[in-house]
Amino acid sequence: MTTAYSPRSWPGVIEAYKQFLPVTDATPRITLLEGATPLIPSVAIGPSLPGKIRLFFKHEGCNPTGSFKDRGMTMAVSKAVEEGARLTMCASTGNTSAAAAAYSTRAGIPAVVLIPDGYIALGKLAQALMCGARTIQIAGNFDDCLRIVREITDNYPIALVNSLNPYRMEGQKTAAFEVCDVLGAAPDFHALPVGNSGNITAYWWGYKEYHEKGITAGCPRMLGFQAAGAAPMVLGHPVPQPETVATAIRIGNPARWRDAARAVEESGGLIDMVTDEEILAAYKELGDREGIFVEPASAAGVAGVKKLAARGFFGDDEVTVVCTLTGHGLKDPDTAISLAVEPEKAPADTQAVVKMLGLAD
Ligand SMILES: *Cc1c(COP(=O)(O)O)cnc(C)c1O
Known about the structure:
Blueprint: H1 13-16, E1 39-41, H2 45-48, E2 52-59, H3 69-82, E3 88-91, H4 95-107, E4 111-116, H5 122-130, E5 134-138, H6 142-155, E6 159-160, H7 166-172, H8 174-183, E7 189-193, H9 198-212, E8 221-227, H10 232-235, H11 257-267, E9 270-274, H12 276-290, H13 300-310, E10 318-325, H14 333-339, H15 350-356
Pyridoxal-5'-phosphate (PLP) is lined by residues 67, 69, 95, 193-199, 248-249, 295, 297-298, 326-327.
């Protein structure tokens, strides 16, 4: 042994947290060793906020397909295989389809992914196609895709792996366990983006379960952030035409609305909204001040914490705040390139580059 740490001992979230999950020894572990994602201390954004905020980033972009959806998908596909499904199906514009494709392939069963007409983030489409999902583009929107998937899975022996699948929530709550296991306690606040509202609900269930089992002494207050153009829970009514640059949270009528509202209420937290400008500012800041590249939706929680801190929400005492960064920046290279400055140009000449850098006159 040259180090006390073993890079190979992590077995994936099902095996690691099996006593908290609806599995038995007979449940197959369909896993890509997801989970155990880093809890990264902020070096720039946190220290620059007013108050005494210990800020951490739970970087879910480090999962095998680059988003937190892997935690839910390992459970959904493992249970589908246990129950004898021979095909999985989902409607998705993004990360769910990438995860469904990868985990179904891992299980040796085909995945069918229905995607809507129109813009799909390039990285996510590439993942579904490369991981062997049968990808069908429907001449309609996301709601049409979901309706078709539901009608088919209701009538044929096919596992629906959209967020309506209850096992996905079980898998996703493991992220809250990991945060507590690393910090040695629950944080004071947990902030994250809210789209279909499954993830905020799953985190809350995880934190509550650890507390009820006596593993932690308390629970965090849950802070959920929607995009201003897709903020049904803030406005109090569905949004028929949601619009935001943060495509992963462009949802007008969240499936887990009630559960998420209860999570926020029980925890003493809040749901607020942030504008696309605030989201993109946090997106850029994560990259150029923290060295962490996420997809735009993932920055919504950070944008929200900055907004709350600016109005003194966190008070003067030291508080621990965790922001979930939900997905990796490489998912959506087009948005990154559209905001970035162009590369500088130089001749293939050392002296020219030396001069450009101001190292010599
Ligand atoms: C799915 C997703 C979300 C939204 O999570 P919900 O559970 O739908 O609220 C946010 N960010 C990314 C990157 C996602 O893939």
